[in-house]
Write a structure and sequence with these properties.
Layout (H helix, E strand, L loop, with lengths): L1 H6 L2 H24 L4 H4 L5 H8 L3 H29 L1 H19 L4 H29 L4 H29 L5 H6 L2 H11 L21 H4 L2 H30 L4 H17 L1 H10 L4 H20 L4 H25 L4 H33 L3 H21 L7
Protein name: CynX/NimT family MFS transporter
InterPro entries: MFS, MFS_Cyanate_Porter, MFS_trans_sf
Keywords: Membrane, Transmembrane, Transmembrane helix
């Protein structure tokens, strides 16, 4: 009888423990994903308040978007090394704690703390960007597509909500309200760390994270097709971060009230996430994606033209640009897998596209802020974005061809 009572519960408890661990792991992945854009995109709606409060130039304010992008580019190899040494679970927890510290520092009210905290936030997000795909490959090899779609959608919705609540929070707070708006994402960051705690007790065996450190990039950097894919992604990122950073300021200058600018900015972020669901199904059905690439970029071009000539329809243009820019990001990432013959090439191409893309995007918001200061308006800035978007369409024609790297 003692043997029966000891043995019978073992299998159900073991199975229950496995299901429970998977449920907590998926919840943790989705919560971590919700931190990968919101702390950065939530800045734009209150950027004018920050500039006025701290007496910043437009170029200096642009650094609030540039610094995270530079951290994204620089943090990827560091994240890979840290995960190999300390494990994915502990490294992701360290990233979450760094994110919490960066959010506290950024919202303290001092100019130096604003930029130092922004840099910490960018580094923490870079770790999440690199390590979450590795986690999916290790623990959910049969569900990568569905979970990637889920965390991309979570990331976009969280960033949209952060944009929408930023201005109401800033206006609700007494005194300069922007620190409260910048601190708001700490709620999700703390919740993510708490949900992630169980993963530290029984960490799974560490897999080498996918990234540029794992591949031999030299042959890829010499490939014309690799450069076409990289520039398609890089130019899209450049324009996307310019628009995402300065759209609220453009709307403010066009006469929109502060609350509306945050809402429109949030619509852009959510549209960029939702569009991926139908696009992925379409990509699987066609072998040559040239016209998909041109079509996605065409949506962005039409939206930029709309902002230029009819800013009163800004909500429609924001949704249209979110669809075009978001679809181009997803399509470009699909090219990374479709245009290579093996996992090693995929890692090399992904590293190349990420490094060049973020470096291109990093200079965009600051440069466009300087252009605005020089010209006193957004016309020239939008024309520059149109030129970059047209160049992206050209590279899309090449990157979308049904061929692979040699």
């Amino acid at each position: 009888m003692g043997i029966v009572s000891d043995c019978r519960p073992m299998l159900p408890l073991s199975a229950s423990h496995s299901v429970s661990r998977q449920a907590w792991l998926i919840a943790g992945i989705l919560l971590i994903a919700s931190n990968l854009r919101a702390p950065v995109t939530g800045v734009a709606p209150v950027l004018d308040m920050i500039r006025t409060s701290l007496d910043l130039t437009a170029a200096q304010a642009g650094l609030l978007t540039t610094l995270p992008l530079l951290a994204f580019a620089a943090g990827s190899p560091i994240a890979a090394l840290a995960a190999r040494r300390h494990g994915l679970e502990r490294t992701l927890m360290a990233a979450l704690l760094t994110l919490v510290a960066g959010l506290c520092l950024r919202s303290s009210g001092a100019v130096w703390a604003l930029f130092a905290g922004t840099l910490l936030i960018g580094g923490a997000i870079a770790f999440g960007n690199v390590l979450l795909p590795s986690l999916l490959k290790r623990d959910f090899p049969g569900r990568i597509a569905s979970l990637t779609s889920a965390y991309a959608l979570t990331m976009g919705v969280a960033s949209g909500l952060a944009s929408m609540i930023a201005v109401p929070l800033a206006l609700w707070s007494a005194g300069p309200g922007w620190p409260l708006a910048l601190l708001a994402p700490i709620v999700i960051a703390i919740a993510s760390a708490l949900v992630w705690l169980p993963q530290l007790r029984t960490p799974a065996p560490v897999a080498a994270p996918a990234g540029p450190t794992q591949a031999r990039p030299r042959p890829v950097w010499k490939s014309a097709l690799a450069w076409q894919i990289t520039l398609f992604l890089g130019l899209n990122s450049l324009v996307y971060y310019i628009v995402s950073s300065w759209l609220p300021s453009m709307l403010h200058d066009a006469g929109y009230p502060p609350g509306s600018t945050g809402s429109v900015h949030g619509m852009l972020q959510i549209a960029s996430a939702v569009v991926g669901l139908p696009l992925l199904a379409l990509v699987r059905r066609v072998r040559d994606q040239r016209w998909l690439a041109v079509g996605c970029t065409g949506l962005s071009i039409a939206a930029l033209l709309g902002l230029l000539v009819a800013p009163s329809w800004a909500a429609a243009w924001a949704i249209l640009y979110g669809c075009g820019g978001g679809a181009s990001i997803i399509l470009g990432l699909a090219f990374v897998s479709l245009r290579v013959g093996n996992a090693q090439q995929a890692a090399a191409l992904s590293g190349m596209a990420q490094a060049v893309g973020y470096l291109l995007a990093a200079g965009g918001p600051t440069a466009i802020g300087a252009v605005h200061d020089l010209t006193g308006g957004w016309t020239v800035a939008l024309l520059i974005c149109l030129v970059f978007a047209c160049a992206q369409a050209v590279f899309g024609l090449y990157a979308g061809r049904h061929r692979q790297l040699a």
